[in-house]
## 1
Amino acid sequence: MAAHRRTVRSLLAACAALALATALPTSAQAATGKFHYSGTDGSNNLLINPTDGLCLTLTRTSLGVDNQTDTKATVYAGSGAFACQGAKETVPAGTGVTWGTYRANSVWFGTGAP
């Protein structure tokens, strides 16, 4: 009987530890490197080690980007309540692009982009 109680207690402790481990939030990953973007106002802007898996709104509408991070960036025309929506373009790691009429207003780094 005592051995049965120890087994049940051990099993309950293991389940509680597993529940705590899976309930803890995971830390956000960051793309390593720099993401440069040129504003339509002629400004040069920079994101350093941006967080993966989050929609980031650019501080200025961009007409070109240089993705010098270690992950892909997906840029979107949408801004404000429509950030990371609308027309989009993927910019692979280590590459840049300049557009004619397309304008980027938000960006998503890494996988899982909307």
## 2
Amino acid sequence: MSFFARPEYKSDTTQFIEQLRAQKPDLEERQREGRALLWDKAVDSEVWQEYRAGRVAQKPYVYQTNA
């Protein structure tokens, strides 16, 4: 055993997460469902190509006025 090892130590954060998982065993599944609602979407590459082709280049010095 190493002189510096502290196997019985757990940070407050680790203890909180372990306690939360024990209280709510379906937590990870609910997180995956929430992620699927917002992030896991099918991307239509043809629509993205049209979107990128329709972009207009921004002019330099956009905050300068011609007064």
